[in-house]
Structure formats: C-alpha cells, structure tokens
Amino acid sequence: MDIVCVRCSAAIPAADIDLGTHLARCQGCNAVFDVTAQVEQGSRALARSTPYLLVPPTIQVVEEGGGALEEGSYRSAPGVGRLVLVRSWASRDNTIRTIFLGLWSMMVFTTLATTCMDSGPFDAMMLFLLVFAAVGGWGLYHAVAGLLNKTWIVVTSDALTIKHVPLPWSGNRAIPLSDLKSLRYETVVTTGKHASTSYTLWGSLRGGESVELLRGLPSFDEARFITERVEEHLADMKESRGARFLPR
User: Fold this and answer.
1) What are the entry keywords (predicted)?
2) Do 22 and 138 fall into the same domain?
C-alpha cells in the first residue's frame, strides 16, 4: 500500500506516517495531512485483490444452507439458506488472566471471611476488602467469559443475528436484512505503553446509520473473513432466490 502527499503527490515513507494519529508529513513540501482515506482505500483494494483461502483458527463454519433459524437454539439441524459462524474467544492470554484472577479472588475472599469471623461490627477493613472482592469478581467474570464464551453469527433469510454465549454479555443483536445495507470493518489503534491493534465490525443501515456488530477482534484475518463470508452468503441468497439482500 502506497501513501502519497495530497499536495504534491510525492510518495510518503513509512517513517513519516503516524498510524496512531493517522497523520503524515511530506518531506518534499512539508504538508501535514490525514491518511485515513488512503489507508481505508488501500485496505479495501487489498481485500478485493486477495481472496480469503483459510478459515481463521478461532472461527468455525458450523453451517451453510438456507431457511430460518429455529427459535431457542443455535445448534439446531441444518436448514436451507442459513449461514452459521462461531468465533471462540479463548486464547492463551485469557487462560493466564483467568488463573491469576482466580487465585487473587480466592485470597481476597479468604481474607474477607477471616476478617468477618475475627472482627465485631462492620469496620473500614471490611469495607476495603469488600471493594477488593467486588473488583476481583468483576475481573474474574470477564476473564472466564473470555475463556468460555463464543460468538454465534447467524444469517437467515430474515435477519443477521449475533449472540454471545454461554455467559451473558452485551452486544447481542438481531438486524433485519431489509434494514442492512452493507458490512465493513475498521482498524482501532491504541497508542502508549500498551499499544495494540484491534478491529471492529460495523453494519451500515439503509437509513444512513451505522450499528456496531462486533468489537475487539484481535486479527485482520478474523474481521475480513467474517465480513466477506457474510456478504458473500447474502449475495448468493439474493442470486438464488431473487430476494433483495444488502441493497446497494
């Protein structure tokens, strides 16, 4: 992908581009400009020119077919016209985090129980330990969810459904296909001591709004595969049934 100056069209070296701010400086004419549009255009061109070949290891294609999803189950028998993708949240980092927070929470709760038995009325130490226990419980829940949860992405003839199971989690959605115009993904870059890159999947609605479908995808391969596979499936349904999915 090449980035060029918007003023003099000179090629911009990678060293002169700050991905954190999406700003670049041209050594030839000293122009400072935003490269967001060029980066996104280059990413789309790369995605179109390089077809996906492999399913990312965190994603499983459970079902490809048609028909409506039976209520109450994401593991029901295959239908006709349905696509089901399952993304696992499990990772080595989540495993380590779960073990650490589990041990930490056990220590806090043990100390809290001992303090309750040894002390009389409610005091400042008990309040302090309760706060620690609440923080530890919150962190442990998130860690266990990151270890056990999976995201089910289901496309039927009527809707695109996203559900996180088995532990309750925010972000469950069901979007009628009649409201959905297209899917896209964007790069989210955080800078600083713990710099990281993740990807967010968005759905563009016919009314002009955008709705967040998935966030925190750790790899470009996952974001691209989900986006392309869902849009390809909807295009196949449109062609085979003559229905109007993802109107352009």
Assistant:
1) Membrane, Transmembrane, Transmembrane helix
2) no
Distance of alpha carbon 190 from alpha carbon 200, whole angstroms: 13
CATH number at residue 171: 2.30.29
Contact (CB, 8 A) for 82 and 67: yes
pLDDT tens by residue, 4-61: 999 998 999 988 988 788 899 999 999 999 988 888 777 655 555 555 457 899 999 9
What φ, ψ does residue 115 adopt, rounded to 5°?
-65, -40
Q: Which domain holds residue 35?
A: 1-50
| pTM beyond cutoff 0.90 | no
Same domain flag for 165 and 77: yes
Calpha distance 79→106 (Å, rounded) = 46
pLDDT tens-digit profile of 108-141?
Answer: 777 777 777 666 566 677 777 778 778 878 888 8
Closest CA to 108 of 78, 73, 134, 82: 134
